[in-house]
Amino acid sequence: MISGILIFNQKGENLIFRSYRQDCRPRLADVFRIQVISNPAVRSPILTLGSTTFSHVKHENIYLVAVTKSNANAALIFEVLGKLVALGRSYFGKFDEEAVKDNFVCVYELLEEIIDFGYPQNTETDTLKMYITTEGVHSSGTRSIEDSSRITMQATGALSWRKPDIRYRKNEAFVDVIEDVNLLMSAGGTVLRADVSGQIIMRAYLSGMPDCKFGLNDRLLLDPASLAQGGPAVGNTAGAKATKAAAGSVTLEDCQFHQCVQLGKFQNDRIISFVPPDGEFELMRYRATENVNLPFKVHAIVNEVGRSKVEYSIAVKSNYGSKLFATNVVIRVPTPLNTAKTTERVSQGKARYEPEHNNIVWKIPRFSGQSEFVLSAEASLSAMTTQKAWSRPPLSLAFSLLMFTSSGLLVRYLKVFEKGNYGSVKWVRYMTRAGSYEIRF
Amino acid sequence: MAVNRIKASFAQPRKGETFELRAGLVSQYAYERKEAIQKTIMSMTLGKDVSALFPDVLKNIATGDLDQKKLVYLYLMNYAKSHPDLCILAVNTFVQDSEDPNPLVRALAIRTMGCIRVEKMVDYMEEPLRKTLRDESPYVRKTAAICVAKLFDLNSALCLENGFLETLQELMGDPNPMVVANAVTALAEISEAAPETRALQITPTSLKKMLMALNECTEWGRVTILSTLADHKAADVTEAEHICERVSPQFQHVNPSVVLAAVKVVFLHMRYIKPETARSYLKKMAPPLVTLVASPAEVQYVALRNIDLLLQKQPDILSKELRVFFCKYNDPSYIKFEKLEIMVRIANDKNVDQLLAELKEYALEVDMDIVKRAVKAIGQVAIKIESATERCVNTLLELINTKVNYVVQEAIVVIKDIFRKYPGYEGIIPDLCKCIEELDEPSARGSLIWIVGEYAEKISNAGDILTGFVEGFMEEFTQTQLQILTAVVKFFLKKPQLPQSQALVQKIFQSATAENDNPDVRDRAYVYWRLLSSNPQIAQNVVLSDKPPITTTIQSLPAPLLERLLTELSTLASVYHKPPESFLGQGRYGADTLQKAAIEEQMQNARENPLAAAAAAAAVSGAPPNPQANAENLLDIDFDGAAPASAQKEPGGGMSGLEGLAGTPQRIQSPVAANGPSRPPASMGGMDDLMGLSNGNSGGGGGGNNNMLGGSGGGGGLEELMGGGAPQTNGSASMGGMSDSDILGGFAAMDVNPSQQQQQQSTTTGDGQGVKKSTNQDLLDLF
């Protein structure tokens, strides 16, 4: 159980102090400031002094600290702090010192509502937004009592994420499959680690209490059951043609679902069945490690010539259909800390040296499929009194690529069942982004 | 506009602020009053004492504005203790609010009432609580359920009298899942605080209810229910199977804490069910655990520490997932360390090549800590997997050839361990001996000397190498001195006829017994001396006997502790890998437990920090009072009436002392550490503490120094006694020398002492400065 939540700025000023139990005394704020904030050698996010434990998370320019006095659930504490950050961002745009100072009343209100006596209660943004607002000018007079009753029903109900009386003229559902490819490639060009962490974001604008069933080309589902099941009713096949990997099925290493998904059903017969919240939400997250299609191949040659120069020759090749194109491709090529100046030549896009990050940043706004571009650069180094070896951080890529999934995942169907029996339109979109796409050299 | 004013109040306090606030609080305009309340809360947060405004804030309690009400309640909760009498004025509003038609207001009232910890308030709580527990709105009921726990904490007798516990137990069957979850939470808290109430009894019915609620309630409710299920001991196999079956879908939850809680439940109940079913659950558990590694750093850290525990119990669950634990370039170092440990744990024949390549990569990085640990990990892998030893040794040799000082040192320490397990790599010894000059850490020097002594017969120039060390004997660390001593004796026993070895052994005994002031070194030298002079054959049997081979260098927790920690998965105990009582010094734990825990902690420290090793020894001997215990108690002292007003009246020095102590339990012990086994009087430690507070490290260092000298004096006496015995067997040639060097030894001790002291001091200085700084800071803060 959490004894108190504290928020500090970087200077160690206490911005928010909310104690949930009497053992969280104001003096503890000083202890934290001295022991963590003004102590540059902080090693771990958890610090126990005496029997008081401080668990902290740093976000933007503030510290969020949970004080506990017992053998509390550490994972839960960090999750609560993470949720608090998420809430703050969704309420104030961003959650930093400025936002906390400007909205401290609202922050206190949120803290009051999400935790009671040290036990987290409800952290659903949508529900909280119904009765805690940033304007702070409403009073119970302007809101009818039935309204409040409804809110509280929803905050505690079995379907705490959905209001019962939603009506849309046009029933639509948008599904975005967004994949982050993580790659770690060794200097020798072998793939050390390649995996995909994907998320499926859904925007549901559906009336009533729709019961949705959702199908993917998940191997576990397909192999035993594909024969038994009839032709899948695919809502919209726009994405299917575009994805090359459509041929096979995909092995999902692990999936995690929004709380609206009935986990028991998934466990037993791999059916994703749910009543969606209204509007946008993250339906599921998944991880795939087999047969990852890497959209880009990078070939990097970096030579340190003596102590005064580093030569780069970086070739990037796209490895997807020629009709597709990636946007916002950014390649960051690390340079030694004592780089004095650089010269770079590129066959496409623009390259620039960013001394503050010790990077040569090569930007290619549009990178079409099956093509290859080259950067050759030279960094001249200034002489240093202490010759310390250069740590050679990995080269990293960022990009986003539409209508392509690295894992080969496809949405096979999305069925909506509702009492009203209305027709609905469904849209599917695929996108692959770079997660941590790193190449050592 | 309001925002600007609030900002201004952050920037600088003006004079007469309290006055202004009071004027605002009693203003006739509602908006001014509200603004003043906000400012008051702001000042409260900044740690200013605004308790004087209590009556004025209280006047604003009866308002229709929910926001304002919340703020007033917040203020009340903070300052109720300083004005217990005035709180009664608020009671009426609370009671009224608890019957308000708006469920939000009802819940707010009952929630706040529980947080006002004033005895008089308790009497008025009874009725509203009873009503709200039966409220039609589940939102109010779930809030009331928690309130029972608050009341129990405040006045358990009243809580029992009114039968609130029974009501809570009924609420476990509530149709609303959140009410169930909160009822479970409250009952769990009550039964932890007072086990004799037996508040939380899991019957088949309530188990069913909980499993039903599990699928419907919020993520936090799930964690509560899962934790309760984990503590529950299944009645029979069927029940355990049922629990596992119902809980395992939660592996797919998006919230890591739910996943960990579910893993815990299944892991603990798994041992009662059929092994094949259990295995399938283990398989199911792996992917979610791996997914946790992708969470934000802090959660990831908790997850990694827990995975480490799980792996110690079930080493093969993640054997295919090695790559997931590869360090990212920008992982914080505490995560990298954990990942390294886990990688070594899951290393096997199949993935060892991959792992070695990766470890080598880390060993060539710039960050010294990571490099050292990576080298160490290579050694651990070599000892764990026999088939990979050769590759590991080759990798280590490559690393030694980089000639980077700290890499070489760590590699030598690691190779020594490999030698202890696998003979047959003596071929690389010449390579090792080449880097003798670069070693400056005692453990690295010690390791190399050990190797030289152990394989003296195979090293052609062993005698020359040892001669070099013997000549510089007095400048070495104690640890290294002991190694030199042993190595020379080994060398002598292996090649007794060499004149060089005879000369060496004479010389080393001379310097170790006569010139050295360390009783350990001296004692060991005498033991060897006697042994050699009585019967060389026996000496050979003793010194050159086969050593028990080591099986692993991977640190593992002792089995009982591991079992204990598995029941604490995902809690702080699992993060620290220590039983909870070791860091929770609460009253209900006995002093013995605390002492035991402290000793264990010292051992842990000793492993990380050699300086503290001696402190651990001192702690075991029970001589000094454990400052840690003091520190805990001091931090736990309840400054009743937590209002800053009372805190400010505390004498400044005392306060700062507390802070210093609290933050630096083992740092304060470091002067004691210098004493080693010489058993300082208990009061000494206390004095050090006091001095440490007033003038930082110099006091502590001085204390250590005194003892050091005392210790050497005592040792000198001992030496004379023993010196009398020794020469009899050893010829009179050395006798004259002995008595001379005895006096010289006294001076030598004086000479050496400061240099050692310096070293110790320099190591303590870093820590000491920390103490000093924080103390100063505190003083500044206070005045």
UniProtKB/TrEMBL annotation, chain A:
SUPFAM superfamilies: Second domain of Mu2 adaptin subunit (ap50) of ap2 adaptor, SNARE-like. Keywords: Coated pit, Endocytosis, Membrane, Protein transport, Transport. Gene3D superfamilies: 3.30.450.60, Mu homology domain, subdomain B. The keyword Ribosomal protein does not apply. It comes from the Eukaryota. GO terms for biological process: endocytosis; intracellular protein transport. It is found in: Membrane, Coated pit. Pfam families: Adap_comp_sub, Clat_adaptor_s. Residues 170-440 form the MHD domain. Its main location: membrane. The keyword Heme does not apply. Transmembrane segments: none annotated. GO terms for cellular component: clathrin adaptor complex; clathrin-coated pit. Belongs to the adaptor complexes medium subunit family. This is Clathrin associated protein complex medium subunit. It comes from Ramalina farinacea.
UniProtKB/TrEMBL annotation, chain B:
Residues 731-742, 755-766 have a biased composition (Low complexity). Its main location: membrane. Residues 772-783 have a biased composition (Polar residues). Residues 697-726 have a biased composition (Gly residues). Residues 15-534 form the Clathrin/coatomer adaptor adaptin-like N-terminal domain. InterPro entries: AP_beta, AP_complex_bsu_1_2_4, ARM-like, ARM-type_fold, Clathrin/coatomer_adapt-like_N. SUPFAM superfamilies: ARM repeat (SSF48371). It is found in: Endomembrane system. GO terms for cellular component: endomembrane system; membrane coat. Residues 643-783 are annotated as: Disordered. Adaptins are components of the adaptor complexes which link clathrin to receptors in coated vesicles. Clathrin-associated protein complexes are believed to interact with the cytoplasmic tails of membrane proteins, leading to their selection and concentration. This is AP complex subunit beta. The gene is APL2.
